[in-house]
Amino acid sequence: MFSHSRCLTRNFGRSLSAIRQGNNVLARRAAAALSASNSVIINSNNVKHNPRSSVFQIQYFRTSVAYRDEVVTVKTPAFAESVTEGDVRWEKAVGDTVSEDEVVCEIETDKTSVQVPSPASGVIEELLVPDGGKVEGGTPLFKLRKGAGAPKAAETPKAEAPAAAAPPPPSAAPPPPPPSSVGPIPTAMPPVPPVPAHALDSKPVSAIKPTPAPTAPVAQAEGGAKAARTESRVKMNRMRLRIAQRLKEAQNTCAMLTTFNEVDMSNITEMRKTYKDAFLKKHNMKLGFMSAFVKAAAYALSDQPAVNAVIDDTTKEIVYRDYVDISVAVATPKGLVVPVIRNVEGMNFADIENAINLLGEKARKNELAVEDMDGGTFTISNGGVFGSLFGTPIINPPQSAILGMHGIFDRPVAVGGKVEIRPMMYVALTYDHRLIDGREAVTFLRKIKSVVEDPRVLLLDM
Fold first, then answer.
1. What is the tens place of the pLDDT at every residue in 254-298?
2. Kind and range of the H or E element at 3?
3. Which of residues 146, 163, 184 is at a domain's end?
4. Residue 20 resides in a domain
5. Which of 146, 161, 183 represents a domain boundary (last residue)?
6. Angle subtended by helix axes 266-283 and 349-364, to nearest 10
7. Where does residue 59 rank: exposed (0-12), middle (13-18), buried (19+ CB within 10 A)?
8. How far apart are CA 292 and CA 266, in angstroms?
C-alpha cells in the first residue's frame, strides 16, 4: 500500500515537472504511468482527465487568505489646495470599539472641520498623534485592529443580564428595622436654661420644642462656595483664530464705511403669508425672508457692478465680475462660516431657498467642505435671527461689501401723512471706500429697499 502511494506521488510529481518543462515525451510517459495505476484520483478539483487525450489537464488555483485581527494604519485625508495643516480633536480613545464609518476624530483647519471615519469595524489600538497635535495630508493618525472587540461587545449585554438579575435575591431579605427616633443617649447633656414660671403656666410641657442645632457653619460653607471666583482656559481652535485674523486684516486693509436704511416689510410679509402654503406644497420647503434679500442683492449688484468688484492689491487692478456668488453667514458652535450660493443671478426664489436649506443642513452636520466656502463676491449677514436691532457688519475679505440684516419690529412710521404701525427692518451696508463711493453704496442699498418692499420691481426690471 505504501509503495503504491509512493509510486503515485512519484509519477504525479514527474508529470508536473514534465509539463512545466514543456517535455512532451516525458509528459506522455508520466501520464501513461499515472493512468496505469488504476486511475487513482488525487484531487478532483486540481486534476482533470480529458477523455480525448491520455494527458491529464492540471489546473492551478490561487486562494486568498482572509486575515482577522489585521492592524491597519489610518492616515490624514488630503486637504484642499488652500489648506496645508490642521489640529486633531479625538472623539475616541485607545481601546474603544468603533464601527465602520464611525467618526474617530476631527481635523480642524482654518476654514472647516474634516471628519475622519473608521475604515472598518474594530478596536482603536494606538493613537499616533496627541490631542490638539498638528497634522498634514497623509500623516498617520491611528492604528485600528479590524474585527477585534466586536464579538466581545455583543457578549457584554448577555453577560451583564445575569449580573443584573442577581441583585434581587438580597432584596427578598427582611428589611432592617427603622432607626430609633430617640437616637443614642449623649454622655454629657448640655445645660438647660431655666424656664420662667409664667411660660410653664401658659403652655403645656409638650409644646416646648428642643433647640435646633446651629446651622452657621453650613451657611458659611455655602456662602464661601458662592463667593468663589474661578477661571478656565480653553485653547482657541483654528477656525476661530482664522476668523479673528481675517477680521483684523479687513480692519487694517479696507477703508470701511457703513450706510443705513430701513425697509418696510409689510408687502413681503403679506406675500409670504398668502403663498407660504402653496409654496410648501409645490417645493416641499418653507418660504423665508432670506431668499427675498438674496435675490434683491443679486439684482442690485447687477445694477451697481462696483459693489460686486474687488481690488487686487498685488497688481493694483480692479476686478469686475459678471457673475454673482453670494456668501451667507451661518453661525455654528465652532465659529462663523460663510458658505457660498453660486450664480444667484439666474436663480428664482425656490432655487435660492433650496440652496440655503442644503448649505444650512451641511453646516449643522459639520459637513461643509472648503469648496463650499471658497469664492464669493458679496456677503449677507442676518443678525435678525438673534433679535438684533441695529449693527455694523465687517467686510469679509477679499470682498468689497457686506449687507447686514436685522430684526423685524413694529414701529410707528409716517405713511401718507399719517402715523401707522408697520413691521420695519434696519439694513446696513458696509463697503470698502477705496473702491466704492457713497453714491454707489447708497444707490445699492436703496435698490435693495425698493425690491424687498415691492417684489414686482423684479418683474418690471425697474
1. 999 999 999 999 999 999 999 999 999 999 999 989 999 999 999
2. helix 2-21
3. 146
4. no
5. 146
6. 80
7. exposed
8. 13
* Dist CA 107 CA 117 (whole Å): 11
Contacts of 373 (CB under 8 A, 6+ apart): 111, 112, 327, 337, 338, 339, 340
In-domain check, residue 202 = no
- 461 noted as active-site residue: no
Query: Cis peptide leading into 214, omega within 30 of 0?
Result: no
Report the distance separating Cα 354 and Cα 107, nearest Å: 29
Question: Is residue 208 a part of any domain in this protein?
Answer: no
Number of domains in the chain: 2
Q: Sorting pLDDT into bands at 50, 70 and 90, what band is 361?
A: confident
63 vs 403: which has the higher pLDDT? 403
23-61 pLDDT, tens digit per residue, is 454 445 555 554 444 444 444 444 455 555 444 455 544
The residue range of the domain holding 140 is 65-146
Q: Same structural domain for residues 142 and 271? A: no
Neighbour count for residue 63 (Cβ, 10 Å):
4
Res. 206 pLDDT band, cuts 50 70 90: very low
Backbone angles phi and psi of 71, in degrees to 5? -100, 125
Burial class (CB in 10 A: 0-12, 13-18, 19+), 387: exposed
Catalytic residue among 303, 351, 433, 454: 433
User: How far is 368 from 115, CA to CA, in rounded Å?
Assistant: 10
- Three-class SS of residue 155? helix
- Long-range CB pairs of 64-72 (<8 Å, 24+ gap) are 68/146, 68/147, 69/145, 69/146, 69/147, 69/148, 70/145, 70/146, 70/147, 71/125, 71/143, 71/144, 71/145, 71/146, 72/119, 72/120, 72/143, 72/144, 72/146
Q: In whole angstroms, how far apart are CA 87 and each of 112, 192, 236? A: 11, 70, 11
The answer to whether 87 is a known catalytic residue is: no
pLDDT in tens, 315-331: 999 999 999 999 998 87
Element spanning 262, H or E: strand 256-264
Which one is catalytic: 4, 437, 454, 461? 437
* CATH number of residue 77's parent domain: 2.40.50.100
Tell whether 303 and 439 lie within a shared domain.
Answer: yes
Provide the pairing of β-strand 97-98 with 113-117.
unpaired
Cβ-based neighbour number of residue 391 at 10 Å:
16
From the list 381, 308, 383, the residue with the least C-alpha distance to 343 is 308
Give the DSSP letter of residue 266: H
The rounded distance, in Å, linking the Cα atoms of 77 and 308 is: 35
- Say if residues 423 and 289 touch (Cβ distance below 8 Å): no
Cα angle value 168/172/173 (rounded, 5°): 125
